[in-house]
Task: structure prediction
Amino acid sequence: MKMRMAQLEDAENIAGLVNAAFRPERFFAEADRTNPEKVRELLHKGKFLLTEGAGKLTGCVYVELRDDRGYFGLLAVEPALQRSGLGSRMVTAAEEYCSAAGCQFMDLTIVNLRTELPAFYQRLGYSENGTLPFPRDQHTNQPCHLVKMSKALLWPV
Result:
């Protein structure tokens, strides 16, 4: 699969992929996870790394540089390709991008109700290090919060 940086014209396809991949969250959040306008806003603050195969978007991850820390979110893999290792490869690409930019740490947040996610990120070297309130602009049908996870980046720059 080919990997590239997203352009503004990719916003609609990115939103579609993220919403398809985040469907497991529908048990606590009825709305789509994102939309093309939010993706375009994020593209002004950071970057989306994309993978493509057979002429279509197969994976994406949002990365943002925050001084000596990198942040990634919206990790999404085409549902038919989940559990193929593509998500782990996307995380590695995000880490390498941030490391090359001088980041010493990588951060992410996950919602506490997605109980399968901590173990996935722990296998990739991340540790829980706090919580944040769930964004007020995202409506949920039950109480929830975000779990912060971080990892030291040890890549040669």
Observations:
- The longest strand covers residues 56-66.
